[in-house]
Amino acid sequence: MKPTHDLFDLVHSLTKSEKRFFKLQSSLQAGEKNYVRLFDLLEKMDHYNEEFVKESFKGELFLKHLPSEKNHLFKLILKSLRSYHGESSVRSLLKQALKNVDILHKKGLFEECKKELKRAKKLAMSYEFFYYLFEIISWQKNLLEEDYENGEFSQSIDEIAEEEAQVLSQLQNLAKYQVIYGKVNAIFRTGGFTPSKVHEDMLREILSSNLLEDASMAKSIRSKCIRLYSLGFCAIAENNIEKAAEYFTEVIAIFEENEWLREDKAKRYLRSLGQLLTCRVLLNDRAGATEIYKKLESLEDMEHFHNPDLIAFRFRILKQIQVEMALMFDQKIQADELFASIKETKNVLSREFEMMMHYRLALYEFSCGFHQRALKHVNEIINNSDKELRQDIYGHVRVLNILIHLCLGNTDLVEYALKSTIRFYTQRERDHEADVNFLKLLRAFNKLLPAERALNMKEGKLIKEFPLVKNMEDRFLELVIKKGMI
Fold it and tell me: For residue 484, which of 371, 388, 399 has the smallest C-alpha distance?
């Protein structure tokens, strides 16, 4: 079996303070410990190499059961992290409180149970943790039986049952909105802003749901936030950027009015800022875009945005937006240096982000007239990207590839790419008639003499035939054709 690098990834995800805490816990036991030596070695490595690990401990007894040693270290690190972060989040505090209640109940300390539950309930209600509230109320029902046995009738079972029904209703309501959010997210992770016919029908059904149409259907702050976010994303897909900006502005207002929600759903807050920032860019609102960009940068100083995943996610948003702002506002960037800085940063690249950055940089280079540099990024996507991810980008990249070769005068390559791209679109479930017609126009354009092509480009005849812009990505492609071919 091929060795995994899970342990290496875990070790390198630790902050300095987390490493220090792990070492401190390990030092409580006397004697040399093999798992600490393994930890120290992994910490110094730039990438995982099993053979290097074996060579480093060559001849030592514990090497014979290295897999179990690695597994042991993995579990110890997680145990250390649980202790270190035991009180760092409301979820952790509620889990601890419920464990305490369970222990106190088994010991027959029922009054102490009630006090612990009262504190936990107040916290769960403040943060709208309905799952925990449901469990807390279940414990309260158990304790009510003990009260009745002792002649205490200050609270009736009807009161608790009514409260339980309200919490269950809020929980079910939130679950419905989470399903909507999951569906919308899944649709755009695959088809992007040009989903398949099946996904388009699904999206239309979602948008016609009372849960989205009627604001009063959202029974909690969490549900309201998901509703507005989903509406914002769908508005972008429908090319209603002004409306999308309104929705995302409302989402961000909810987050900033409820610090507990921003802390709990920090990634969604960052994503909302990123979406609003892109909307401001597309609306050519330089001042608005700059203001939001600075807000994203300033989050570096806030403690609950310091975990590695959030740092990487915020970094991705800022880098992608840098290119989008350069495209729209004619700002200059050093594309090679920008991408090099991304490659050097650990835990930043995801498959979608890498694809999007290559595409955005290809658009930028093309708009500046650097066709060979643009082609390098296009080839990275065509040759290496996941073909099931962001079908809208994959289609636009193929069109951009044709435009680059047109500008370079590679007539034969243009014809080959045209055949391939027309086949790509005709095999899609969605109706791409307008896209195919544009490609056929490019074929006719490719057959013109060089002087005629140059004149047509100068007069902007090609862009006049560009398909009707239907979404955000169409806007970016149309923009760079105007800049790069006129």
Answer: 371
